[in-house]
Amino acid sequence: MLTSLSIYLIRLYQRFISPYKGFRCAHAAYHRGHSCSQAVIAILTKHGLWNGLSKIHLRFKHCKYAYHRIVASRKNKTKQFLAKIAHKPKSISIAEIYAKKTEEKKERECSCEDMWDAVECSADAYDCADALDCTSSTAELASGAGECMEGATGACECAGAIGSCSP
């Protein structure tokens, strides 16, 4: 009689409480098998209430271990996910990209020392070194009549106020 009452109460639990509790039996979820309530009904029908108590207790103990394994697995997955996020490259803002490009552009600009090595002027000709304007990406002649492009090498041909660096 107690066995059939226990089975009846478990069936009520399965029908009216279990669907609304919001989670599943940990043993069934971890081992992909029957829930504890289904297992207890099987134990009760086969062994009875008093003879099956130790087996029911063992099943609930296994369910507890399954729950702890699920929680540990979730924590491990969360740690792995957070580690993965931490190693992602940092996104760069547009301002940082612009600053980097500006810095690279400044590095490419000519310097008077660099241009002096590339320009050879004769003593009696126009002084090209004084005419070089090193403020832009191309070294322009102060007269505005000619310009030295980046990477231009060769002699500075000066004729009065007009000069150009020949490649």
What low-confidence regions span 5 or more consecutive residues with pLDDT below 50?
116-167
Structural class: mainly alpha
Tally of strands: 5
Order of helical and strand elements = HHHHHHHEEEEE
Describe the secondary structure blueprint for this structure:
Elements: H1 2-17, H2 26-31, H3 36-47, H4 49-86, H5 94-108, H6 112-118, H7 128-131, E1 132-133, E2 139-141, E3 147-148, E4 156-159, E5 162-165
Antiparallel strand pairs: 1-2, 2-3, 4-5
Helix pairs in contact: 1-3, 3-4
Keywords:
mainly alpha, three-stranded antiparallel β-sheet, two-stranded antiparallel ribbon, 59% helix, rod-shaped
Describe this structure in words.
This protein has 167 residues and is mainly alpha-helical. Helix content is 59%, strand content 9%. It is built from 7 helices and 5 strands. It has a 3-stranded antiparallel sheet with strand order 1-2-3. A two-stranded antiparallel sheet has the order 4-5. α1 runs antiparallel to α3. The radius of gyration is 42 Å and the shape is rod-shaped. The N and C termini lie far apart (109 Å). Residues 116-167 have low confidence and may be disordered.
Question: How would you sum up this structure in a few lines?
Answer:
This protein has 167 residues and is mainly alpha-helical. The chain is built from seven helices and five strands.
